[in-house]
Structures are given as structure tokens and as C-alpha cells.
Amino acid sequence: MASQVLGIKNLQKNLKQLAKDVKEKDLNYATRKAANPIRDKARENAPVESGRLREDIVTRKTTKYSEYDSEYTVGIRNRKRGRKGDPNRIPPAVYGPFVEFGTSKQPAQPFIRPAYDSEGPKTLQRFNDVLSKRIRLRVKQGKIKV
Q1: Residue 146 domain flag
Q2: Is the pTM value of this prediction over 0.85?
Q3: Residue 94 belongs to a domain
């Protein structure tokens, strides 16, 4: 006795579209949203003298990117802020690692590691929640047919 599944081609098309949408948009969105609380906690922990270090703690997409991976890091901005050619461009807080790890003359004042230690364990659950919500939204919008 043979059985036939109707609409299998349609289902395959929708699954491919889901994979494309998740990979290109929702995966990056969920990863960034999951990492942002670590960034916020690091900013909160950072010692403040001028405020520049605190402002230069960012969440950024890494240059390593494979077809299905989305990787973000929380760290110190490594480029100037502002438009090219603007004489008021602000250089990055290159001294951030010296504050985090200390020097021979300055004790360490860690701010990124404690942020990761407190917020890191919750990151995977945040990622799952945000990604699930985005997929449900796409289904509701009719962009993905179930």
C-alpha cells in the first residue's frame, strides 16, 4: 500500500525560505539581542573617568561568518567614532584592555569578564526566546506557511 504526501514540494520550498530568513535576518537579530545584556552590564561595570570607555563598549558582528553561523562579540570599539574627514572624530578607548587586565603599575579593574559571568549563562535562553518569537511572527505574517 503506497501513500502520498500532498504538497511536499510546497513544504520543501517553505522550509528553504524559513532557513534563508532565519539565517539572514532572524539569526543575526536574535544573536545580537542575546549579547546586548552582556554589553549593558559591562558598560555598567566599567570605571568612569571621562565616560569614553563606557561608550566604546559595543556588540559587534565578527568577521568570521559561515553559512549558518551568526557570531557577535562584546568588546571595546576599535575604530574612531564619527565620519571620515570630520576633525572632531573620537578615537577609540584603546586603553580598555589595560583597565580590564591591569598593568605592572595599575591593578586590574575587570568589567567585561564579570559582565559575562553574570549575564552569559542567560544568553542561550534569551537567544532561544528571541528566535522563537521571530519565527512565530513570520508565521503570523504569512511569510512562512506551516
Answers
A1: no
A2: no
A3: yes
| Cβ within 8 Å of residue 68, ≥6 positions away | 23, 27
Express each pLDDT in 34-92 by its tens digit.
999 999 999 999 988 877 888 889 998 876 655 546 778 888 887 776 677 776 666 77
pLDDT, the chain, mean: 78
Is the separation of the CB atoms in 70 and 27 below 8 Å?
yes
How far is it, in rounded angstroms, from Cα 125 to Cα 119?
A: 11
Q: Is 88 contained in some domain?
A: yes
CB 30 within 8 A of CB 127: yes
Quick check: is 89 in a domain? yes
Domain of 71, in residue numbers: 8-141
Cβ-Cβ contacts under 8 Å for 85 (sequence gap 6 or more): none
Domain total for the chain? 1
Give the position of cell 512562512: 144
Q: Is the CB of residue 98 less than 8 Å from the CB of residue 9?
A: no
The greatest distance separating any two alpha carbons of the chain, rounded to the nearest whole angstrom, comes to: 81
